[in-house]
Structures are given as structure tokens and as C-alpha cells.
Write a structure and sequence with these properties.
By secondary structure, this protein is of the alpha/beta class. It folds into two domains: about 110 residues, Urease, subunit C, domain 1 (Roll); about 325 residues, TIM Barrel, CATH 3.20.20.140. It contains 14 helices and 17 strands. α2 crosses α14 and α12 crosses α13. It starts with a strand and ends with a helix.
């Protein structure tokens, strides 16, 4: 048993002082008690928060972050951005993916993410032929997560068609595609974790990529306790296609035909009307919001205030990884709403500042979408123990100088010009100290060599 003493800890949604936290050998919280002496315990200076779940990641896109910021078309959009994404995807092998993912997951831990939902669709070789073994790309992600010590919900993606009209996959999408038998084999492989803090979930790329019969067959075959993720209503063109071909908007179609519930995470759901917004909230599903990517791609803004008023659940993801920071996701989630509504403190509630509302929402929704017991510093309850994942904010960070407990979250999210995370624990192990991951030098050196090769090939016009 590891025994800690925190000066300040955010316990079950409230700041408490002199908190004793006991962690068992499996990396779960065994006991939490406020007002205990520090003697005999490892002392933690600073402000201790639960680690954040990142509910939406495409790890391979970390390799192209910042490389799609030159105008390639007078009407640059998500659809033109995809061309750069396809070029990056064509370059990746299992070994290269493992190097990129290790760097990304390390960066997530340094930023305060302690669990990630990996929405993975690069299953096969670029020409569409399966690797041997079939799960080679899945293994690359699992090995990366285990190496750097982040929790993982691995979501192998079903991807079968190139549009809602059922057109075949384009040549550059062939490595994404799987028939039902192959997909179920991938899902079964993902369900055999390399590490105790890894698990699997079901994942459909989008309505345009998965025909209705395939969706129903996978749901019938998969274990009922698995989380289910899907991209939906990210682009207005998708909404228009769905209205034309299925007679309903995408989220409405899912609600009516599939019957989504709390195990579902609808990633983006940007373009929902008032009825869809209220019905999505009532379903208990999680809206997976990715503000920095949605802004980078010019997607639009999710109607967060209306969704909160309806009791909706949500979480955050870094998606394409143009930014790997929960602070930036939460800050820009609120700032986007301020620009839309043209007023301040849009998500604030009576007696609760924006920072607290944002953090609590991201923790609860992210944990639900991940399907794991994370996101709380609390003693065990009837359902079991909570994983010992937490962040320690540096009490000497400029943004937190002289901070009162009631101001810490607002100051961390809205006033920190520099990272304020001092230490991060994941599953009972300190992975980050003094702002740096224990493997920073080795992992980053490996990533730098790989990206130098990527840049040289890009200049030479080589795909591989």
C-alpha cells in the first residue's frame, strides 16, 4: 500500500485539506480521508486533481500536426484537409505508428490526460492487404500506451463505404476497410490487453462509412458492456446527405433507428438542431467535443449551453492533436460559446465558476465514454475502486500564485500562459515529475529521428 498526504485535493468535487490517500498494489484508491497528519506518508505539495480522460484520439495524426496550415484551395475545409491526412496515413507502418503514439501519449500525460480513447482505423497495409498478424497496428498502439504508462480504451474502427450512398472505398481508404469477419477479429484482438489498464470498445467511423446492416450485426455480436463510439454530424455536408438519402438528420437517425444510450459516445455532434440536442441529452449518451480540432478544421460550434440546460453529458478529446492540452480544450470550449452568444461565463452555474463546471463535466463524461473507473479522487463505493490517476498543479506557477481554493480551477484553465502541471500519477505510478515524463528524452529523440525522415521524404515527394 502506498500512502500519500496531499495539502489540497479535489475530493468528490470539493477542495479538502490535509488529505490522506491510500493506493493499493493494483493502482486503485483504497481510502481517502481529509484532515489527517502528514507523518508516515509521502507528501504532495500543490493542488491535486483527478487525471483527465481524453475521449477522442487519432494518434497517427500527431505526425501531421501543423502541416496542413497552408491554403490549398480557395474553399479550404475538412474535405481538403483530408488529402494531407491520407498522405500521412500512407506513410505509416506499425513501427512508425508505435513511435508516433509513444510521443503523443507522453505529451498527453505531461499535459494532464491519464487515459485515452484511441479511435483507430489504420488497420491494414496501404494497399489494403492485412498485416500478419492482423492486429499489428493495434499492437503498436497498445505497446506505446504501456511503455509510457497511460490508460487506454482501444477502439478498432469499422470502415466499409466511402459515403452514405454506399460507394466503395477510394484507393487511399483501402487500408481502413474491413469486412464484418475481419472487424470482429480485430475487436476480439483489442479485447486482449497488453496491460491491466487497457480495454476495448466498439467503434463505427461514421454513418457515411458504415451501412446500417453492418452496424446492427456488430452491436448484436459485441459484448454489451463495451463502450460504443462514432463520428457524427461533424460536417454540414454530412447532415445534408443524410437528409437526402435517409430522410432524417444523422443524430436523429441514430436515436430513432439504433436507440443509443449511456454506453455511446457521439463524437463532435456539432450540427444538431434543438430537438436532436434535447433528445441526445435525454439518451444519457456522451457528446465527445474536440474544440481545438473542430476550430482547426472550421467545423462549427456545438450548442453547449442548450445541451447543459437539458442535462447532457459530454467530455473532451484532442482528436487530430494540433493541440495536446486539456486546458486549451476546456478554455476554447467556453470561449467558443462566448463568441457565439456574445456574453461571458456561458457555462457557469449558480455557485460554480466556469472552471469547476468544465472540469467536472469533462471528468464524468470522459470516464463514461472510456468505460473505466477514472475521473474521481474518492474512496471505493458499491461499484468498486477508482483508479489512482491524478494531476498535481504546481503551487508556485505564476497563474496560481496566492490562489484560494475556490479560484484554482478558473485560474488554471483561464489564466495559465504556461503549463502548470508539476506531476502526474497514472494507475498509482508517478509518470511525470517536475513537468517532464520519466521517458521524455528517449521517446522524444526517437520521434525526432522519425519526423526528420518523414520531412525528407515529403520534400522528395515520396509516400514511403
Amino acid at each position: 500500500m502506498q500512502r500519500y498526504h496531499a495539502e489540497h485535493a479535489f475530493v468528490d468535487g470539493a477542495w479538502q485539506g490535509d488529505v490522506g490517500i491510500d493506493v493499493d498494489a493494483g493502482g486503485y484508491i483504497a481510502a481517502v480521508q481529509a484532515g489527517v497528519p502528514a507523518e508516515g506518508r509521502e507528501r504532495i505539495r500543490g493542488w491535486v486533481l483527478p487525471g483527465l480522460p481524453n475521449l477522442h484520439s487519432h494518434a497517427f495524426q500527431r505526425a501531421m500536426a501543423g502541416l496542413a496550415e497552408r491554403a490549398s484551395d480557395p474553399a479550404d475545409s475538412f474535405w481538403t484537409w483530408r488529402e494531407q491526412m491520407y498522405r500521412c496515413a500512407a506513410w505509416l507502418t506499425p513501427d512508425r505508428l508505435r513511435i508516433v503514439a509513444s510521443q503523443l501519449y507522453l505529451e498527453m500525460l505531461e499535459a494532464g490526460y491519464t487515459h485515452v480513447c484511441e479511435f483507430h482505423y489504420l488497420h491494414h497495409a496501404p494497399d489494403g492487404r492485412p498485416y500478419a498478424p492482423l492486429e499489428s497496428m493495434l499492437d503498436a498502439l497498445r505497446e506505446a500506451a504501456a511503455e509510457v504508462g497511460i490508460g487506454l480504451t482501444l477502439l478498432p474502427v469499422l470502415y466499409q463505404t466511402g459515403g452514405l450512398d454506399g460507394r466503395p472505398l477510394a484507393e487511399r481508404q483501402r487500408r481502413f476497410g474491413s469486412d464484418l469477419d475481419t472487424y470482429l477479429r480485430l475487436l476480439e484482438a483489442a479485447s486482449r490487453p497488453l496491460h491491466p489498464h487497457q480495454r476495448a470498445g466498439v467503434c463505427f467511423h461514421s454513418l457515411r462509412a458504415v451501412p446500417e446492416p453492418s452496424m446492427r450485426q456488430v452491436l448484436a455480436a459485441a459484448a454489451e458492456e463495451l463502450p460504443v463510439h462514432i463520428h457524427v454530424a461533424e460536417q454540414e455536408a454530412e447532415v445534408e446527405d443524410c437528409l437526402r438519402l435517409r430522410g432524417r438528420r444523422p443524430v436523429r437517425w441514430l436515436l430513432d433507428e439504433i436507440g443509443i444510450g449511456p454506453r455511446w459516445c457521439l463524437v463532435h455532434a456539432t450540427h444538431v438542431d434543438a430537438g436532436e440536442c434535447a433528445a441526445l441529452a435525454a439518451s444519457g449518451a456522451v457528446a465527445g467535443l474536440c474544440p481545438t480540432t473542430e476550430a482547426n478544421l472550421g467545423d462549427g460550434l456545438f450548442p453547449l449551453r442548450a445541451y447543459l440546460d437539458a442535462g447532457g453529458r459530454w467530455g473532451i478529446g484532442s482528436d487530430s492533436h494540433v493541440c495536446v492540452s486539456p486546458v486549451e480544450e476546456l478554455r476554447w470550449l467556453e470561449y467558443g460559446q462566448r463568441l457565439w452568444h456574445r456574453r461571458r461565463n456561458v457555462v457557469a452555474a449558480e455557485g460554480r465558476g466556469c472552471g469547476e463546471v468544465l472540469l467536472q463535466g469533462a471528468l464524468a463524461g470522459g470516464a463514461q465514454a472510456s468505460g473505466v473507473r477514472v475521473g474521481r479522487i474518492a474512496p471505493p463505493d458499491a461499484r468498486g475502486a477508482w483508479r489512482a490517476d491524478w494531476i498535481v498543479l504546481d503551487p508556485e506557477a505564476d497563474a496560481l500564485a496566492g490562489a484560494r481554493a475556490e479560484d484554482v480551477l478558473d485560474r488554471w484553465i483561464f489564466a495559465a500562459a504556461r503549463p502548470s502541471v508539476d506531476a502526474v500519477m497514472s494507475a498509482g505510478v508517478w509518470q511525470v515529475r517536475q513537468g517532464r515524463h520519466r521517458l521524455r528524452e528517449a521517446v522524444s529523440a526517437r520521434f525526432t529521428r522519425l519526423m526528420s525522415d518523414f520531412a525528407a521524404r515529403a520534400v522528395a515527394g515520396q509516400a514511403d
